[in-house]
Each structure stands twice: as structure tokens, then as C-alpha cells.
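Fold this sequence, please.
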Amino acid sequence: MVYVYANELFPTPIRSVGVGFSIFVGRFGSMLAPFILLLAQGVGINQMVIYSVIGIFTFFAVARLPDTREDQLKDVIEEEIIGTTPTTHEGKYHDL
């Protein structure tokens, strides 16, 4: 899911950085998952409560992401920011 959605979310110049960071965050979370048991024992609550809170937080964070269905991939960062393609006076793309 991360590979497909992140590719559609980021414009071309920063797409590889955005996808790489998204994958890093996912793997970092996987690395921290075994330590939830130690955290739960230290705090004195059930580990499933911590997993549930993380899951609920993730649901609301993902629900706020934009829908990319039927959107064209952005070629330049300005398309993402202002919603239009930057052009020169000749109507051609300028170099970034």
C-alpha cells in the first residue's frame, strides 16, 4: 500500500525521497513494535491498549490523506503547491 500511494502522492522531483521516507517510517515502526511489551509492563497497562491507540491514531491520520484516484501524477513541485503548471512566456516548461 505504501509503495502505490506514496508514488501517487509526491511530485516527480521528490518522489524517490518521499517514497523512501515513507518506507523508512514503516520499517522504523516495525522495529519498535517488539518494545511495546516492555513499555506496557513499565507503565502497567495491557499492551493491546497501546496497539489500539496507535491503530486509532493511524486511522485518523490516513483518513485525512487526499484521494488520488483519477488524478494525474504531478511533474513539478509547483503543480502540487499552486495547482497549475509553471510556464514561461513561450508556454513551455521552464527548467527547475
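The chain has five helices and no strands. Residues 2-67 form one domain.
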